[in-house]
Amino acid sequence: MHESISVSLPTGRLDVSVRRADLPLDVLCGFGARRNPRRGFLFVSKVLGRHLPVRPSTMRDVHRRLARKLPDDLPGPVVVLGLAETAIALGRGVFEEYVRATGREDVLFLQSTRYHLSRPVAFRFSEEHSHASAHLVYRPEDARADGLMRAARSLVVVDDEASTGRTFANIVTAFRRELPALEHVAFAVITDWRPVASPRVALPEGLRSHDISLLEGEYAFTPADRPPIAMPRAEGSGELKDALISRNDGRFGLLAGKAAGSLPDVSLPGGKGRRVLVLGTGEFVYPPYLLAAELEQAGAQVWCQATTRSPALVGDAIGCALQFHDNYADGIDNYVYNVRPGDYDDVIICYETPADTVQPELIRALGARVVSFS
Question: Which architecture, in CATH terms, is 261-372?
Answer without folding.
Answer: 3-Layer(aba) Sandwich (3.40)
